[in-house]
Amino acid sequence: MSKPFISIKNPFGDKYIKGERFSFEYIAPKYWLTWIFLLISYPIAYLPASLRDFMGSLIGMLMNRYEKNKKEIIKKNLRETFKNIRESEVNNICESYFKNLGCMYLNLPLLWWKSDASLQKIIDKEGMKLVDEVLQNNQSVILLAPHSLSLEFGGRAISGYDVLSMYKPFKNKLINWFVGRARCCKESDKAIIYPRNMQSMKSIIRNMNQPSVLYLLADEDISAEDSVFSKFFDTKKASLKSVSKLAKITKSKVLPCICTYNMNSHRYFFKVFSEIKDFPSTDINIDCAKVNSILEKQIGIDITQYMWTLRIYKHRPDGSDIYKEK
Length: 326
Description:
This protein has helices at 32-45, 49-66, 68-81, 87-113, 116-120, 128-136, 151-157, 173-184, 198-207, 242-250, 284-301, and strands at 5-6, 123-126, 141-145, 163-167, 191-195, 213-217, 227-232, 235-240, 253-262, 267-272. By secondary structure, the protein is of the alpha/beta class.
């Protein structure tokens, strides 16, 4: 069973030694190819940004041509989301999306190998005072983020706060440990990143009794039973009830945020928006509709940087499965 990743300096009282740690099983032969991959990632992190993005764009062009399964999911998501979208628009979005994805792949090693101070220098931020104001009022903040391609850099942007979040464990245990430690085990981090399960949610609720920041992604279609179908662009999408419930239980303010990447300037931009008004309310349907409305605005900032490869329509009001349809 996966464990949380715990910063040594975390203020929540959780012991570092109880978190996910290095295991000597990672030096077994079955992990040697993974070690080679990680070693190759080191020089990539120190390439000039312009060269790294050029290489990422080339990789993206190849993926656009050969990643047939991913491309089909993207097209189905776009056609379901935007009913009147032209095929030329779909193809243009796919092309730009894969270029952004290629750049994201080659920029991830920055998070693994570089210091927090170095990473902060390439992230521009806006709206951080909104977070500070809530914390100064002795309340916790839920930063509601979409699955943008730069979401990992969004987590790094808020490293100065007492941070809580959740992660989906990788099947490869070495990759899981290596990536997880990079998320919250740098020199100044004060965070706990929990594996995604119900026990972790209980721990998060407990820790949010003290002013802290929860970096929450809640736009996946995980469970029909725990969701409400609400308007989403030209269709309906399952919106998780958990955002409203969590805000109500912890008495937290919910502030939308997003992180995007500019391939021209080679910089990240992390923006926090004003809190969602009258949230949570007494009506879960209204709350879920607001969450979907916020997601529309976040995606609209740059449609090509949303993670369209996610199966965001696994559950449909009529019980159909768009990903199995031809």
